[in-house]
């Protein structure tokens, strides 16, 4: 079904605020990640204490923040956004993440970053897709949170294979030394955004690069976290 401005992207009912994209009812009914580890966002007994996996092998980031598992309806929105030429969904997804992040921020679960970075898209893939799907989400987030955002601070140094369909070992090899940083991140709190986190390999490589560059802390942000 074709969704036009002024209608909810999920239930297709009229919106009171057209720019919201998703109505209050659909937003309230979204399945949330609950009782997950604050560092890996995988099921855990406590949302306040790192799980055994993260205590044994801590990831380079301090918080992994995602709205929900990679399930409908948000998984369908992401697929429509990325693969069916619907860039207007960027601000809708950005707003959904913002509302989720603000709730945790008000509860004191995480802090505001000094910089927001987006996982870069290779120029060839950007040309094929027709837009930078990460940049279009990250840019309004940085504006709303009043955090600096420069899309060229984190770059791909070489073309990589699509991570989908690769094993965990192949993903790691595919992204080894694939990123490079520009700018000074010494003693800075940085957030890195990706649309979906599966194994976390992409964000792991980028986060390690930031920590080696002197960043004080890293938050991993995503719309969905595959469980």
UniProtKB/TrEMBL annotation:
NCBIfam families: PRK11595.1 (NF008616). It comes from the Bacteria. SUPFAM superfamilies: PRTase-like. Signal peptide: none annotated. This is DNA utilization protein GntX. Residues 170-224 form the Phosphoribosyltransferase domain. Belongs to the ComF/GntX family.
């Amino acid at each position: 079904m074709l969704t036009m401005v002024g209608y909810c992207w999920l239930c297709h009912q009229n919106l009171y605020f057209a720019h919201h994209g998703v109505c209050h009812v659909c937003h309230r009914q979204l399945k949330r990640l609950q009782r997950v580890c604050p560092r890996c966002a995988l099921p855990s007994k406590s949302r306040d204490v790192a799980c055994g996996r993260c205590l044994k092998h801590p990831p380079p980031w301090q918080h992994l923040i995602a709205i929900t598992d990679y399930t409908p309806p948000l998984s369908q929105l992401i697929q429509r956004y990325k693969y069916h030429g619907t860039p207007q969904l960027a601000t809708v997804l950005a707003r959904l993440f913002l509302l989720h992040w603000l709730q945790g921020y008000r509860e004191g679960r995480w802090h505001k970053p000094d910089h927001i970075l987006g996982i870069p898209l290779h120029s060839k893939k950007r040309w094929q897709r027709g837009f930078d799907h990460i940049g279009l989400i990250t840019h309004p987030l940085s504006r709303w949170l009043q955090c600096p955002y420069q899309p060229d601070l984190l770059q791909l140094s070489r073309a990589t294979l699509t991570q989908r369909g690769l094993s965990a070992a192949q993903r790691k090899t595919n992204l080894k030394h694939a990123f490079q940083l520009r700018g000074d991140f010494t003693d800075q709190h940085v957030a890195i955004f990706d649309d979906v986190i599966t194994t976390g390999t992409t964000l792991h490589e980028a986060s390690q690069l930031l920590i080696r560059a002197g960043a004080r802390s890293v938050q991993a942000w995503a719309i969905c976290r595959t469980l």
